[in-house]
Amino acid sequence: MTIDKETGRAGRGSGPVDWDAAAATFDDEPDHGLRDAEVREAWADRLRDWLPDTPADVLDLGCGTGSLALLAAGRGHRVTGVDLSPRMAERARAKLAGRDAEILVGDAGRPPVQGRLFDVVLARHVLWTLPDPEAALRHWRGLLRPGGRLVLVEGVWGTVTPVGLPRSRLVAALTPHVARLHTERLSGDARLWGAPVDDERYAVVGVLPETPARHSEIVDVHLILRRGEDVLLARRADTGYGDGLLNLPSGHVEDGEDVRAAMMREAREEIGIDLAPDDLRAEAVVQHRGPGEAPRTGWFFSAEHGAGGEPVNAEPHKCAELVWHPLSALPHDMVAYARAALTAWHAGERFTVHWQPDGDSVGYDAARTAAPVPLAPARTGEVHHVELWVPDLAAAEGAWGWLLGELGHAPYQRWEHGRSWRRDSAYVVLEHSPDQRPGGHDRRRPGLNHLAFHVAGRAALDRIVEAAPGHGWTLLFPDRHPHAGGAGQYAAYLEDGQGYEVELVAR
């Protein structure tokens, strides 16, 4: 059904359109202003097919002076128009006066509709002007109700230096988001443009599923390979994402893999090390959204340098270099996602959300990058830290730094008179304070007797005990080891050169 130019009626719920009065406010350009009656009728015919048969909520983005909005309102639809130009918006308001319509001033890519949902998103010659059309499409899809539709008119103009949006790119971007997709070539219909055209002009109509699709996310894995206080980073190259920036060795989980198997595979493919399951420890889980991207969930694992072999650049076509950096002084030229995750983990946060707005950068920017938000802050009553005053900081650092590293603690703080290592939300401090009184530590006097730590299993405990003498530790109660704590406990008791005792209990 076409709009009757004499009565102006266009279906249920619509009132008369005064075409003469409307034409007085149309632009002079016949293709954009629809000043010509034949052009108006041609677009009305197309909208009849593209828009729902019954009155619907239509969001006209980049509405200009309201030419298409008026045609949609004439068919009884409730129209919300958005244009960046206050002058255009004012002319659209005048054109749609008395209709069921609202005109807003704002960015078509991020329309100021404050959580409202629509049945149709309509845009003509708008998408190609936006800096990231794919991101705009994802956002527009989120403005539609189930079964809603995107009606997009685009094209490519010019032969020497073409501008616009090729149909193939728009179809590829829209296909994952819709249940049905229809395209129409518009170049051959001279009525739409007021004269024949020889460039590419087309329409794409995508209809969403009636039932919303269940949310799904990419799962990726990241390796924190530690060498003392340093962590291994890889500089990305020729990947199309974060090129030139440092990142952790990482990748996506593939079908049929669990996250640990994926991490072992990625470590082998990217840095040439063969990690065993026992070499890996899950350190953090981060839900991340990059600028203009869909959310994803990242699993961050740690492993010690030497486990699985010496790392090498196994993918030189994707990686420019491998470098070691102190965990406590991470470089700024990093992928923001990886840096945020490392920073949060180093501060003891195991579960975080890192949500970047569309205007943010893939690379870390100290002034702009969104900070990670912890999801499991420390609870009242948990141990915050334990502090030991030691007579010889250098000797204590050598012994305790090795042992705490073996137990999964990461170097945390470093100052003139002290060092600390963190595991989860708690940390251990060694300090040689200027206020310290003379005399050595005696665990048999009132005060601290010993610290006790879990160890993953018997094999891990045996390995630590075997290596401990080389790092300044002596095994206590060797005649009763490993059951010095009783027949039902497999444990080791170690003493450092300054008299501090540690108990290691195998799970």
Written overview of the protein:
The structure is a single chain. The strands form four sheets. Strands 9, 10, 11, 12, 13, 14, 15, 16 and 17 form a nine-stranded mixed beta sheet that branches. Strands 1, 2, 3, 4, 5, 6, 7 and 8 form an eight-stranded mixed beta sheet that branches. The chain has 507 residues and is of the alpha/beta class. Helix content is 21%, strand content 30%. The chain has helices spanning 19-23, 30-33, 37-50, 67-74, 86-95, 133-141, 167-174, 259-271, 336-346, 393-406, 458-467; strands at residues 57-61, 78-83, 101-105, 118-124, 144-157, 163-164, 180-185, 200-207, 218-227, 230-236, 246-247, 250-252, 281-289, 296-304, 319-326, 351-355, 373-374, 385-389, 410-415, 418-423, 426-431, 450-455, 473-475, 491-496, 501-506. The chain has three domains: 19-207, Rossmann fold (3-Layer(aba) Sandwich), CATH 3.40.50; 218-374, Nucleoside Triphosphate Pyrophosphohydrolase (Alpha-Beta Complex); 385-506, 2,3-Dihydroxybiphenyl 1,2-Dioxygenase, domain 1 (Roll), CATH 3.10.180.10. The protein is elongated and about 100 Å long. It has eleven helices and 25 strands.
Report the average pLDDT across residues. Answer: 88
User: What is the percent of helical residues?
Assistant: 10-25%
CATH topology of the largest domain: Rossmann fold
> What is the CA-atom radius of gyration, in angstroms?
33 Å
For the termini, the CA-CA separation is 77 Å
**Can you name the CATH architecture of the largest domain?**
3-Layer(aba) Sandwich
Tell me the fraction of residues in β-strands, as a range: 25-35%
- Quickly give the structural class: alpha/beta
Choose one word for the global shape.
elongated
Tally of distinct domains:
3
State the CATH superfamily name of the largest domain: Vaccinia Virus protein VP39
CATH class of the largest domain: Alpha Beta
